[in-house]
Structures are given as structure tokens and as C-alpha cells.
Amino acid sequence: MRKRGDGGWSQRAGSVLSTRYGLEVAFSILVGVLMGALWSFFNPRCYTTTSIALDKLQHLNSELTTLREENIELKVHLKRAEQERDAALKQRESLGLVKKVGPVGTVKSLRTQPLVQPNEDANPKLAEILSKVAPDKELVVGIANNNVRSMVNIWFSSLKRAGVSNYLLVALDDQIAHFCKSNQVPFYRRDATIAAIQKDTGDNHAISGLKFHLLREFLELGYSVLLSDVDILFFQNPFLHLYRDCDVESMSDGYNNQTAYGYDDVSDDPKMGWARYAHTMRIWVFNSGLFYIRPTIPSIELLDRVTSRLSKEKAWDQAVFNEELFRPSHPGYEGLHASLRVMDYYLFMNSKVMFTIVRKDANFDGFLPVALHVNYHPDKYERMLALINYFVNGKKDALKAFPDGSEWR
Ligand SMILES: *[C@@H]1O[C@H](CO)[C@@H](O)[C@H](O)[C@H]1NC(C)=O
């Protein structure tokens, strides 16, 4: 543990030094350019020199941005390498022959399942796109049609701002594909094939059902996906904050330790007298709008189960997703038993946590979530804009106008 910490420190120190050095260089160049600009302003013949200098400045600025991004990429690489090594060690231990049990405290079961072998032939077109967008075999994936174009716009702008380059939008119609193209957003044009039974469950739910089917294509190609609805804002690079040790790592609809991570909910039946209290396990659902899914057999089986049920039942995809994740085997049913992790509910925040807790608590001054999902409120677009003002533009009163919940009529 200590070794790891030291490595982290020296890497941070190195990055601080190189950033500072870069800033100093950029600053001196900026001063030079400004002086040149002033001079040329009074001396129009020099206009071309100035424009060349401005080009140079722009180039340097973009180089600095690249450096900063590379730094984050390095950190992601380091973290992933450590996580993969730990997982490989555990897999090797548990996949071996039948073993004797070690002493108490040394026994660990396998929760990081091995990855499937990629099958490029499954979808060569997507394989080609992904090899460019996600060289590290993981990416953010959003799915949208042109109806939600304005939200898509703030969604990918937030990803760009957070320094994320490995993301992709599955474009369900030509208009949104064109919109992506003109904004340099990586996209994959794909037609929506919505199961007949889901057709009148409303546009949103229909797309949600489709996403499990679509995700399979990514997993088959060997990619891990951070699936993201487009009513989500990113403020930090999410890949620095994943554990990658489970089949599914998901944000929660919960709003405190109990509801997000699970608790013993005691039910009371007084007529039972001595045995009136029955203990139940309870957890607020995994939010199917933001989850990281690794290309493993249990993950793919999950997607297939959800897709298959949504093609036959008129159901809410998030409910089906959770049932398949949490139900154990019982008569007539074989449980999935995928390994699960709940994301930190402050880092991967839902809008109930944001509007009922975080914005009112001075302890959160200066806190920056990794991602924020406007899932608890219907006025999504307005709240997303306000949240950008709050977190990015430092407007501390940007959220004042919004009530905790929605005014239900
Ligand atoms: C919630 O759990 C975290 C650890 O997961 C702990 O650090 C924190 O103190 C807990 N908060 C409360 C209010 O119990």
C-alpha cells in the first residue's frame, strides 16, 4: 500500500512541475504575442506577423490542453494496470484446481470475471470505429435520436470539457448523426429496432429497452462500456474513478449510505408476537442510465436476459435490469449472480442528492462530482444548464430557483 501511495505522490509532483513549467512558457509567449499585437495595432503593415503569432499562440494553447489530457490518460493507464494485475492474480488463484482452504481471513472468492475473447467479425463496421475511439478498450456510450438534440449537445460538451476523448454516440437517425459530424463527435449510425410490445411505452422507455440490445455489440467486440443517458453531465474524467472489479458497476438511485448501499429493513407484524419483526434486505435500484459494464459472460447474459424479457413483457427496462441483477435462484428460476458494485453516490450523483442535500450543505463547497444525472426531475434541460452554471461557471446562485422536487400536479 505504501509503495502505491509514494508512486502516486511522485507522479503528482511530476505533473505539477511539468504543468507549471508549461504555464510559464505559455505565459511568456502570451506576453510576447500581446506586445506584438499592440505594436501591430499601431502599425498596420505588421498585420500578417500578428496573425502568425496568434496562430502560434492558439497552437500552444491546444498543446497545453493535450498535455493536460495526456496526464489524465497516464493516470487512467496506471490505475487500470494495477487493477488488471490484481484481477489477474485473483483469477489465477481461483481458476486453479480444487484447493485446500487457507486460514480465516485469507479466503477470497472471484468477483472479477475474465473478459471474453473479442469477436471482430460480429460487427466489422463498429470494430473499426471503436479501434479509433477507444484504444484502451473502454468508452462512454450514449444513445439518442434527434428529439433530444439539445441535451446531446450539453452531454458531449461536458465530456469534452472533462477531457474525455473515448466516447461515442449511437445515432438513431440521420439528423442526429449529422449533428455529431458537424461537432466532431464520434458516432455510430444505427437504426432503432424497437420491439413491437415496447412501442407505445413512450419514446424514452422504448430507447431504454433498445440500449441493452445495442450494448451487446460493444461487449462482443471486447469493449467495456460506461453507458450514459444523455441527461447526464460529466465534470471529471469518469475513467479515473472506476474500480473495474465487477461485471456491473452502477450509479444508484439512493441518496444516503443505507438506500444506496443496502440495509436491513425491519418489517413489523404485531400479531406474530414474539416473532413480530422480520428482517428484509433493501437497496435502492441501480440506475440503468449510468453503469459500467465489463465484457464478461455474466454481463452479456444480463444484456440478453433484459433484451429477451423486454421483447415479451411491457415493462420498464430499469425494473427488469434490477430484477435480473438482484434475484437469486429459486424454484423455476436461475439467478444471474453477476458481481455488482455501487458507485459512490456523491461522485456519480443523482439529482435528488444534488438538489436535496449537496447544494444546501456548506461541506460541499468546492466539491465537484464526476457525473451528475438529472434523473429525479422532469425539467432536465433547464436544470442541466443551471448545473453547468453552478459547477463550471461558479455561479453559486444558479440553482436557487429550482425546488427540491418537481411540483407535481
Ligand atoms: C457512509 O459510508 C462511508 C463509507 O462508505 C463512511 O465513510 C461515512 O462515514 C458514512 N456516512 C454516514 C453518515 O454514516
From TrEMBL:
Its EC number is 2.4.2.-. GO terms for biological process: cell wall organization; root hair cell development. The keyword Membrane applies. Belongs to the glycosyltransferase 77 family. The keyword DNA-binding does not apply. InterPro entries: Nucl-diP-sugar_transferase, Nucleotide-diphossugar_trans, RRA1/2/3. This is Glycosyltransferase. The lineage of its organism: Eukaryota, Viridiplantae, Streptophyta, Embryophyta, Tracheophyta. It is found in: Golgi apparatus membrane. Residues 164-382 form the Nucleotide-diphospho-sugar transferase domain. Residues 57-98 form a coiled coil. GO terms for molecular function: glycosyltransferase activity. SUPFAM superfamilies: Nucleotide-diphospho-sugar transferases. It is an enzyme of class 2 (transferase). It comes from the Eukaryota. The chain crosses the membrane at residues 21-42. It is a single-pass type II membrane protein. Keywords: Cell wall biogenesis/degradation, Coiled coil, Glycosyltransferase, Golgi apparatus, Membrane, Signal-anchor, Transferase, Transmembrane, Transmembrane helix. It comes from Ceratopteris richardii (Triangle waterfern). GO terms for cellular component: Golgi membrane.
